């Protein structure tokens, strides 16, 4: 049976193995399900399992997914298969989804397309819990699963080019990504503005690139990248233009610290709230500094 494992039968084999105490077969089937999760959820076999088995499946750290949105989609497909009987499980099921890693607009789209009013109300309450960051229904912070796809991004930067005895800096707006599943580099959507020495960090499954410089111009503006849609959106500018500064995320908020602010070294600290979409100056460093590490 181990040799017969396929996305269309893996769940059935797993249940058979557990029912007959076939530990090795159960382990093999479980590993197959985790590594082929995107294919498993496309087959109808998953629609027939119980809520307990479904929750067990999607709670695994080892399911190999491109994004947490795939898990959310699987939940919606399972619930809607027998919506009258299964909508009562929606909170229990979605408790196993790292919803803070799912773009809010995708949850909003699901709500807009939902025809069952009670399910729509439940999803709205979850969305409100996420946007208000109360954390009463679902956790407001999550880290990706161990088996989730992770990528390395190289963003902007520059290189030296020599032509006719002159040396020029070529500043990139391009972004390249290293795919850890396929072990290859791929081009993704470029930034609107090429920049060097920006602050870069991640927050809520998105990549924020803020400040930096190009030539003699130091930027206050920034951009945010959504890996799921492969698109960039502009951010409101910081109160202070800066490069070679520290940028980090904490508690759902971005913080920018210090850096070069023209001809001087800065000591100010600004915070950015992605819900309110604005920056505000919140404090100062004990002493001005630049090109430091911040975490």
Strand proportion, as a percent range, falls in: 25-35%
The stretches of 5 or more residues where confidence is low (pLDDT under 50) are: none
Order of helices and strands: HHHHHHHHHEEEEEEEEEEEEEEE
Question: What would you call the shape?
Answer: elongated
The Rg value, from CA coordinates, equals 23 Å
Number of strands: 15
Structural description of this entry:
This protein has 295 residues and is of the alpha+beta class. The protein is built from 9 helices and 15 strands. The protein has helices at residues 10-19, 23-35, 37-40, 51-58, 69-81, 83-86, 90-94, 104-113, 117-132, and strands at 151-155, 158-163, 166-171, 175-179, 184-188, 199-203, 206-210, 213-214, 217-218, 222-226, 231-235, 246-250, 253-257, 268-273, 278-284. The strands form 5 sheets. Strands 6-7-10-11 form a 4-stranded antiparallel beta sheet, with no helix packed on it. Strands 12-13-14-15 form a 4-stranded antiparallel beta sheet, with no helix packed on it. Helix 8 runs antiparallel to helix 9 (117-132). The chain starts with 9 loop residues before the first helix and ends in an 11-residue tail after the last strand. The model has no long low-confidence stretch (mean pLDDT 92).
Chain-wise SSE layout:
Elements (H helix, E strand, L loop, with lengths): L9 H10 L3 H13 L1 H4 L10 H8 L10 H13 L1 H4 L3 H5 L9 H10 L3 H16 L18 E5 L2 E6 L2 E6 L3 E5 L4 E5 L10 E5 L2 E5 L2 E2 L2 E2 L3 E5 L4 E5 L10 E5 L2 E5 L10 E6 L4 E7 L11
Antiparallel strand pairs: 1-4, 2-3, 4-5, 6-7, 7-10, 8-9, 10-11, 12-13, 13-14, 14-15
């Amino acid at each position: 049976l181990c040799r017969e494992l396929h996305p269309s039968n893996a769940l059935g084999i797993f249940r058979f193995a557990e029912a007959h105490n076939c530990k090795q077969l159960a382990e093999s089937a479980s590993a197959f399900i985790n590594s082929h999760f995107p294919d498993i959820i496309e087959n109808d076999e998953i629609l027939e399992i119980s809520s307990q088995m479904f929750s067990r499946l999607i709670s695994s750290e080892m399911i190999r997914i491109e994004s947490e949105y795939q898990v959310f989609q699987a939940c919606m497909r399972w619930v809607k298969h027998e919506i009258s009987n299964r909508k009562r499980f929606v909170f229990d099921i979605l408790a196993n989804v790292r919803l803070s890693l799912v773009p809010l607009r995708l949850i909003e789209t699901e709500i807009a397309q939902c025809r069952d009013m009670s399910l729509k109300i439940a999803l709205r309450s979850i969305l409100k819990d996420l946007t208000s960051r109360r954390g009463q229904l679902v956790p407001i912070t999550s880290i990706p699963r161990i088996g989730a796809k992770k990528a390395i991004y190289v963003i902007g930067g520059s290189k030296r080019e020599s032509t006719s005895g002159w040396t020029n800096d070529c500043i990139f707006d391009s972004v390249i990504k290293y795919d850890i599943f396929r072990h290859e580099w791929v081009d993704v959507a470029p930034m609107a503005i090429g920049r060097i020495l920006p602050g870069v960090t991640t927050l809520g499954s998105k990549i924020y690139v803020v400040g930096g410089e190009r030539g003699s111009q130091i930027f206050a503006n920034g951009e945010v990248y959504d890996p799921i849609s492969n698109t960039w959106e502009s951010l409101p500018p910081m109160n202070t233009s800066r490069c070679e500064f520290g940028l980090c995320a904490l508690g759902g908020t971005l913080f920018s610290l210090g850096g070069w602010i023209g001809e001087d070294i800065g000591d100010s600290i600004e915070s950015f709230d992605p819900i309110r979409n604005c920056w505000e100056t919140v404090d100062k460093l004990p002493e001005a500094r630049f090109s430091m590490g911040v975490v």
